[in-house]
TrEMBL record, chain A:
GO terms for molecular function: ferredoxin hydrogenase activity; nickel cation binding. Its cofactor is Fe cation; Ni(2+). The keyword Transcription regulation does not apply. Fe cation binds at C67, C468. Belongs to the [NiFe]/[NiFeSe] hydrogenase large subunit family. Gene3D superfamilies: Cytochrome-c3 Hydrogenase, chain B. Ni(2+) binds at C64, C67, C465. Mg(2+) binds at E45, M418, H471. It comes from Dissulfurispira thermophila. PROSITE patterns: NI_HGENASE_L_2 (PS00508). Keywords: Iron, Magnesium, Metal-binding, Nickel, Oxidoreductase. This is F420-non-reducing hydrogenase subunit A, selenocysteine-containing.
From TrEMBL, chain B:
GO terms for molecular function: aspartic-type endopeptidase activity; enzyme activator activity. Keywords: Aspartyl protease, Hydrolase, Protease. The keyword Transferase does not apply. InterPro entries: Pept_HybD-like_dom_sf, Peptidase_A31. It comes from hot springs metagenome. PANTHER family: HYDROGENASE 1 MATURATION PROTEASE (PTHR30302), HYDROGENASE 2 MATURATION PROTEASE (PTHR30302:SF1). One of its GO terms (biological process) is protein processing. Pfam families: HycI. The keyword Protease applies. Belongs to the peptidase A31 family. This is Hydrogenase maturation protease. CDD domains: H2MP.
Length: 497, 166
């Protein structure tokens, strides 16, 4: 390895986490390996052990400044099991209602502020334009207002139901701490309707700007980020996408169901591979085995993302989302086998899948807001015993999120383990980055133009959350590329901004 | 002038929480001193979420951890808003940077402060889960809090480059 050339893309320290990409070239100047390094936040388990289990929903939602709602939900579900209590039906529905509002805001933000700029502004536009301002310049100020309104109204719902903005506090083992009033229900119903309009509008914008532009459509359907891996997601009893509850379904690269298991059995199915060069652990399917960062049915690598959730499902649970689901699979020429579409392996389709999920979340939010049971006062069952082990999972926007707690007979925690959404996608992200690098660096020739963006696009589609919730002000440039000679000396540096 | 003081950080991530600790210290001053007519907010994320918190104010003072590696932990400095620019879509890709978010908000006609001051406090450890600050960073909390209070009540001015060592 020491004789290989090394290229480093290092964003140093940034507002919301930091990572480092290392590209190693072989003697011929082609890409030998790419490493995606992330400094791990340390000691969360020790931080929690010795605390009361019931504090976890408000502690774990501090792990991340972006998806606290997902941690809150996985945590209360783990507590339901730990305290051996089944929440009343209305409580589950309120949890799910809040969760749909969260999904709408999270997917909206990703599309307009992050994923969207690559398409709407263009993959080769200068970085200074590839942001939400560039999007607004292209699609109009009114859209910007709609994005802000959408975020605001759904944050309002989260605060109303969760008792606190951003970091909900209302989840309790056995249910929820307050019922929904009829006035609140009416407000949420209207907000859900507005969300559906907004989701449909967003899908139309995607259609007009991306799908009707042959260059972008070619990019989405090209093999640039194509990986035939296993897929994971949560499905309901009819094998439809579900964000809040259900069974974990894994399909193989051909689309056949590989396994379906209850979230509490995750450790029988998932193992973690360790590489010496990073703190990251790479989850893989235990029964297939770790074969390295490779595609195919013999490699235990799986992805858990919006596209993965659609790939494991037979259909969507709401009518409008179903229409768009069919349209996406038909556009990619996916054939139906045994009544279900074959998976889409083109990773850029994840952006489209995210919008379909946005529509599903909005439609399901309306279903829940108009469910007669949603205003039931029966929102809590008081736990009476302790099982001592609790495992809860939800679909976080970024993938299946699992919380696993163990406690003594008093409910004091003795063990905490988590697989966060992004973790599931570490191996696929590494593979997508390598694929991008291979296209950009051949025989020692480096395509400098757009290199940072093309590599970013490779992992941005997974919407990764790395060391979430650090806001440390940076003191250096955001991204630096060092090209090193065989002795490790920097022979050229170029950086963003 | 409607002023907001925002402590930014993760409360359970060691020195990353220093901004929040300063905000809480100012809250204590506020209870004792009725002249301190400000709103105090604890915030946990940058970008659009931070921009949301700024809406409706004339002036904002944001306190956050800083990792430059060039100065002693606990040193603090008034920074230009542009120093917050660097969340460039690469890692925690959920949002946009605060400068872009503010420009976006202004484009949409939202009322955002013209006067935004950032105070960065050099952190030692922002990667270990802990509720406590490291010693040197802890010492900065009262000093920074009282400087902000003095500035707001007595217009004493915030520290400049000279404030680097606490």
């Amino acid at each position: 390895m020491s004789a290989n050339k090394r290229i480093t893309i290092d964003p140093i320290t940034r507002l919301e986490g930091h990572g480092k990409i290392e590209i190693f070239l072989n003697d011929e100047g082609d890409v030998a390996n790419t490493y995606f390094q992330v400094p791990e936040l340390r000691g969360f388990e020790q931080f929690c052990v010795g605390r009361l289990a019931e504090d976890m929903p408000v502690i774990t939602n501090r792990i991340c400044g972006v998806c606290p709602e997902a941690h809150h939900m996985a945590s209360v579900k783990a507590l339901d099991m730990l305290f051996a209590v089944e929440p009343p039906s209305a409580a589950k529905k309120i949890r799910e209602l809040l969760y749909m509002a969260f999904y709408v805001t999270d997917h909206t933000t990703h599309f307009y502020a992050l994923g969207g700029p690559d398409f709407i502004v263009g993959p080769d536009a200068p970085p200074s334009e590839r942001n939400i301002l560039g999007v607004i310049k292209k699609v109009g100020l009114d859209i910007g207002k709609q994005v802000i309104d959408c975020r605001a109204r759904n944050h309002y719902v989260i605060k109303m139901l969760g008792g606190r903005g951003i970091h909900p506090a209302a989840g309790q083992p056995g249910g929820w701490s307050k019922p929904v009033t009829e006035e609140e229900r009416k407000e949420i119903e209207q907000i859900a309707k507005d969300n559906i309009d907004f989701a449909l509008f967003s899908l139309k914008a995607f259609d007009d700007i991306v799908l009707k532009n042959s260059n972008y459509l070619d990019l989405v359907t090209s093999d640039i980020y194509l990986h035939k891996t296993y897929y994971m997601g949560t499905v309901d009893e009819k094998n439809r996408v579900n964000f809040y509850d259900g069974m974990i379904r894994v399909v193989d690269p051909e689309g056949k169901e590989f396994v379906k298991y209850h979230p509490s059995e995750y450790y029988q199915h998932i193992a973690e591979h360790v590489e010496s060069w990073t703190y990251l652990k790479y989850p893989y399917l235990k029964k297939v085995g770790w074969k390295g960062f490779v595609d195919g049915i013999d490699s235990g690598v799986y992805a858990a993302s919006p596209l993965s959730r659609l790939n494991v499902s037979d259909s969507m649970a709401t009518p409008l989302a179903q229409e768009h689901f069919e349209k996406m699979y038909e556009t990619f020429g996916s054939k139906k086998i045994n009544g279900r579409y074959q998976p889409i392996h083109h990773r850029l389709a994840t952006h489209w899948a995210r919008l379909i999920e946005l529509l599903y979340a909005a439609e399901h939010m309306l279903e829940l807001a108009t469910d007669p049971e949603i205003t039931s006062p029966e929102v809590r069952k008081i736990p009476e015993g302790i099982k001592g082990i609790g495992i809860g999972s939800v679909e976080a926007p970024r993938g299946t999120l699992t919380h696993h707690y163990e406690s003594d007979e008093r409910g004091v925690l003795t063990k905490v383990n988590m697989i966060v959404g992004t973790t599931n996608n570490y191996a696929p992200m590494t593979m997508s980055i390598k694929r991008a690098a291979e296209k950009l660096i051949q025989k020692g020739k480096i395509v400098e133009e757009g290199i940072l963006n093309r590599i970013e696009m490779a992992f941005r589609l997974y919407d990764p959350c790395l060391s979430c919730a650090t806001h440390s002000l940076p003191g250096k440039m955001p991204m630096i590329v060092n090209i090193r000679n065989q002795d490790g000396e920097v022979i050229r540096t170029f950086k963003r901004d | 002038m409607k002023t907001v003081v925002i402590g930014l950080g993760n409360p359970i991530l060691s020195d990353d929480s220093v901004g929040i600790k300063v905000a809480r210290e100012i809250e204590r001053f506020k209870i004792q001193n009725s002249k301190l007519k400000i709103n105090i907010i604890e915030a946990y994320a940058g970008g659009l979420r931070l921009m949301d918190e700024l809406i409706g104010y004339d002036r904002a003072i944001i306190i956050d951890a800083m990792v430059t590696g060039n100065v002693k932990p606990g040193s603090f400095k008034v920074l230009p808003l542009s120093s917050l620019v660097t969340t460039r879509n690469i890692s925690c890709t959920h949002d946009t940077n605060i400068l872009t978010a503010i420009e976006f908000g202004k484009m949409l006609g939202l009322k955002l402060p013209d006067d935004i001051t950032i105070i960065g406090i050099e952190a030692k450890d922002v990667e270990t889960f802990a509720e406590e600050l490291t010693d040197d960073v802890h010492k900065a909390v009262t000093i920074v809090a009282s400087k902000i209070v003095d500035e707001i009540i007595y217009k004493k001015g915030l520290c400049s480059e000279k404030c680097l060592d606490n």
